[in-house]
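User: Run a structure prediction on this.
Assistant: Running it now.
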Amino acid sequence: MVLWVFGYGSLVWNPGFDFDEKIIGFIKDYRRVFDLACIDHRGTPENPARTCMLEARNGAVCWGAAYCVKGGIEKEKAAIQYLERRECEYDGKAYVDFYGEGDSLKPAATRVLVFISTLDKEANKYYLGPAPLEEMARQIATATGPCGNNRDYLFLLEKAMFGIGHEDNYVIELANEVRKVLRGLKEKRIVGSLIARKAHPPFMRV
């Protein structure tokens, strides 16, 4: 027996556990969305971050990376314990077929573990649900937590998907909107600084 784990968010660039093999590929009938709250890594309870989760969608594919853990039950147990602590906002698990590059008919691995979330705000306190692109971008641009800010999570995912050769248009669109928000915030700070200088000019010696 071996353990397979599918990563579609930060696990793509930072798995964080000991594994023996990594395969680039995809799972079927799921798509990646930024509808999950994170309050202890990239955000806080007062200002939660938006991180990605899976949404079931017939005909969709979600690219990422599958990690194989071999070497016995203790090694598998250590990986699972680490992942359950790290992925604590996800309230469910599923086992899916994983397809490698170049073969969309025969799975490269079966019973691949993936962390999922209930799409119900009453049943799952971490489920934020969808929101307009601009609103999501403002939240991502301003949220920060003990492990860093939310925007870096998004930008690193964008970079990682480019690195594996399977860019996600949804991620790119959201990242570009966040950059637009950040530019606007920077411009506001500059204008505010100029106004403050005019209102309180520096003391000049004569």
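The radius of gyration is 20 Å.
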